[in-house]
Amino acid sequence: MLNIIIFGAPGSGKGTQSQLLVDKYHITHISTGEILRNEIEHNTKLGELANKYMSKGQLVPDNVVIDILDELFVHNPDSVGYIFDGFPRTMSQGESLDTMLVKKNTKINFVLSLEVDDKHLIERLIQRGQVSGRNDDTPETIKSRLQVYYNQTAPLKEYYAKQGKLVKINGLGTIDEIFSRIEKVIDRSDY
Ligand code: AP5
Ligand code: MG
Questions:
Q1: How many CA atoms lie within 13 A of 123 on its CB side?
Q2: pTM for this structure?
Q3: pLDDT for res 79
Q4: What is residue 76's predicted lDDT score, i.e. its pLDDT?
Q5: How many alpha carbons lie under 13 Å from residue 71 in its C-beta half-sphere?
Q6: Is the distance from the beta carbon of residue 182 to the nearest atom of ligand 1 less than 6 Å?
């Protein structure tokens, strides 16, 4: 199995690069953000709860997203691998993911961290906000998403560095340039 965490700040390109990874390696894309936005769109109870946090740029509670992951594993038992996009975002999510993967007799192969400076992140998100309809792509909410990332999510890098899994990828350049940096990391290893 090939299991990848695509890691990075809001706007770093996790969703964009995930799509290319799915096309090339046929792994299952799991984006907790997309799942939650879908719940909001369908006016479910889960969506209603999630929206309270997402609209302010805060994290949805750990137990809620961990349950979503658990459920997904049940529905995709035979995948050749997974790409985790936007999960884990806290230490507790990271530890839960490790436990879930051990139960499936597998593990994370790479944590690819897309490194982009704040100036570019903000530019990309403001630009997307003009067309995306995402209610968290506003200047105020972008600021709080970045703060949440640095305070609650970025510390996970240390967790994965200690496991020897963290690979920093320069996240600036064209989408294809960035993908070829990612491909090199995956293809030169015998995961
Ligand atoms: P989530 O949906 O995960 O959003 P995010 O992390 O804020 O990141 P984005 O989706 O905005 O950016 P991205 O890194 O995917 O970049 P993209 O490829 O789109 O989470 C949203 C919210 O849901 C959270 O705030 C939280 O409330 C909740 N949530 C989700 N998961 C959770 C969890 N595990 N625990 C708790 N809460 C959770 O690119 C961004 C833009 O840049 C696009 O317009 C793209 O076209 C453009 N772009 C991409 N690459 C390039 C490039 N190379 N050059 C120029 N532009 C580029
Ligand atoms: Mg995304």
A1: 6
A2: 0.97
A3: 86
A4: 78
A5: 8
A6: no
